[in-house]
Amino acid sequence: MGGTSDTSAATIDALITDLRALRAAKGVSYRDLATRITDRRIADGTSPAAARVPHTTISDAFRLGRRRLNAGLIAEIVRALDEDAAAVDAWRARVAAATAAEPAPELEPAPELEPATTPAARSSPGWVLLVMLAGLLLNSTGKFVNPLLGDVFFFDMVGTALVAILAGPWAAAGVGVLFIVVELLKGQVIAAVFAVTMVSAGVIWGLGARRFRLAETLPRFLALSALVAVVTSLIAVPITVIMLGGATDRGLDGLRDAVLAVTGVDHDLAIGIVNFTVSLVDKLAVGAAAFAIATLLRRVDGVGRRVPAAP
């Protein structure tokens, strides 16, 4: 009997060793695995509360010296590591073979309580509204700092990008809507019109972060931020030309004149070149700042951990 158990344990250790190697090759952390599995369960129709899996449960599945394995959880892990359906079935069968001598199912550890807010609290309307208001404040801070830097860049979307990572596209778009309302209350109609770019940026950042997982690494999020720069420029340039006659009364006008003097291109084209170039640098800086803040929050009691994926 003891020999059979020892053989089973050795087989399970071999399986876990291979699973560890697979995770290392994919470069995915335990927290990211937990997030991916939770998001997949939600996408499959499970409620957010029931779908949540603690990262400690995931890390425990990789522990050597186990006597049993949860075949369903191992299959979810392999699937979250971007393996195809055939590979998932193969791993499930391998778990079944490795645990044949120990057929009793293993009970998963009780879900850990987060030291800060719980996932349910972080997906509640109150929490999302609080994050949106924080994003609005962060955007406003950037807008006031920009004149100190020559009034060339914008730096007014750090909050939008951060909210997109933390709470999804519609909350991030909501930050833009709130910004529009604030500008209208101040009587700043032109600023409110330009704030439409915040709404579009929030949707793009949020969908990219949630649906395509582009907020999992800095290079991915910077690439997403470059796309935001393109879209916001396509919106801002016509507004500048039509509503302002091509003059922004900012440092951008000097750059426009410099482009006209050096290249001799059409006036409107010069506006587009300047706006896109500045917007690209601006959105990359904004994206990097938002990613850094989100990463810091994730390390502080899980406060910044991703909320269940938005549709």
From TrEMBL:
Q: Which organism is it from?
A: Microbacterium dauci
Q: Which UniProt keywords apply?
A: Membrane, Transmembrane, Transmembrane helix
Transmembrane stretches, start-end: 126-145, 157-182, 188-209, 221-245
- The lineage's top-level taxon is Bacteria
User: What's the protein name?
Assistant: Uncharacterized protein
- Is Transmembrane found in the keyword set? yes
**Lineage of the native species?**
Bacteria, Bacillati, Actinomycetota, Actinomycetes, Micrococcales
CDD domains, per the entry: HTH_XRE
Q: Which residues form the signal peptide?
A: none
Residue ranges for the region (Disordered) are: 102-121
